[in-house]
Amino acid sequence: MDTGMTTGNYFEIPLDRIDVPEDRARNFDPMAASALAAILKVQGIMHPIRVRADGDRFRLVAGLHRLRAFEINGMAEIPGTISNARTDEEARLEEVMENLGRNELTALDRAQHLYELKVVWDRMHPDFANGGGKTFPTGDEKAQIFGFATEVAEKIGMSKRSINIAVKIWTGLTPDSRRRLVGTKAASNQSEIKALSEQSPVRQERIMDMLLSDPPIAASVADALMLIEAGVRPSEVEKRYQAVHRAIEALDDHTLDRVVLAHEERMIASLRRQGKI
User: Fold this and answer.
1) Among 35-39, 165-169, 223-227, where is mean pLDDT lowest?
2) pLDDT digits (tens, 9 = 90+) for 72-93
3) What stretch or stretches form a coiled coil here (predicted)?
């Protein structure tokens, strides 16, 4: 079909000619679409959707919430651009990369998208191996092949270490935990979902039960773990101690020395109270 469209330009696309693939990288949130619809009524659309030509129709690549928001507002057409993707894998890669560049992603969304990016990379580069297993390149030595770490860092400001942590979080979470986390406060807190992902499937289920009970039995994953292991909920003092303890434990020696010097008088006074000096 001759659409008269040039890749990279914006065009008005009839909503009734756009098909949405079932296998989407990002979950659809009806409440988010309704909220977006109200915003778009006032300020209009800032980022056109992305589609692939498919005969006399179009397949959505990126922009499902924008598409549904236009439907809610009763619009007949939506601004869009034609994708360069030639295959389903390239379209998925394009969808994931666009979503990763958007600010409203939760920590859970971002972990899922970075995992999706890894999966797409594996399928597009079946001969690439690292340590005996297929993976996406995360080091500068592979920049000439794909430049994964560099490209992602430029788009969303994440380090290679952060990317690897996010992928590990997604693979560590059980499918049930992923489903139950959607829409929760914990989904936006990487520390929370990381702590959850490090637990066994049985513990993940118990923790999610505690977080989602009405009223909640535990306010955080740490609270839930304390209840499971010690049978008591930590006090506010214990929570502060654990938070500071984890932060100090993660410091390198140089940074730790700076912290000690900055609080030298209090550190010495504390050691004297305890009879250490």
Assistant:
1) 35-39
2) 999 999 999 888 777 777 777 6
3) none
Residue 134 one-letter amino acid: K
Q: What's the residue count for the chain?
A: 277
Answer yes or no: pTM beyond 0.90. no
Kindly tell me the sign of the dihedral angle through the C-alpha atoms of 33, 35, 37, 39. negative
Residue 246 contacts by C-beta under 8 Å, 6 or more apart in sequence?
none
CATH class held by domain 1-84: alpha beta
Return the closest-CA partner of residue 246 out of 230, 225, 266, 262.
225
DSSP-assigned beta bridge partners for residue 59: 19, 52
User: Looking at the chain, which residues constitute the CATH 1.10.10 domain(s)?
Assistant: 86-200
CB count in 10 Å sphere of residue 137: 19
Do 32 and 65 form a contact (C-beta atoms < 8 A)? yes
Q: With 0-12 CB in 10 A as exposed, 13-18 as middle and 19+ as buried, what is 119? A: middle
Tokens representing 161 are 């270490």
Q: For residues 40 and 28, what is the distance between their CA atoms, to the nearest angstrom?
A: 18
- Could you give the CA distance from residue 122 to residue 114 in angstroms, rounded to a whole number? 12
- Give CA–CA dist 193/144, Å, rounded: 33
How far is CA 45 from its chain centroid? 23
Residue 51 C-beta-side C-alpha neighbours within 13 Å: 31
Q: Are 61 and 52 in contact (CB under 8 A)?
A: yes
Strands 57-62, 18-19: pairing kind: parallel
Strand-pair category, 49-54 with 77-82 = parallel
For 86-200, CATH gives 1.10.10
Contact between 51 and 58 (Cβ < 8 Å): yes
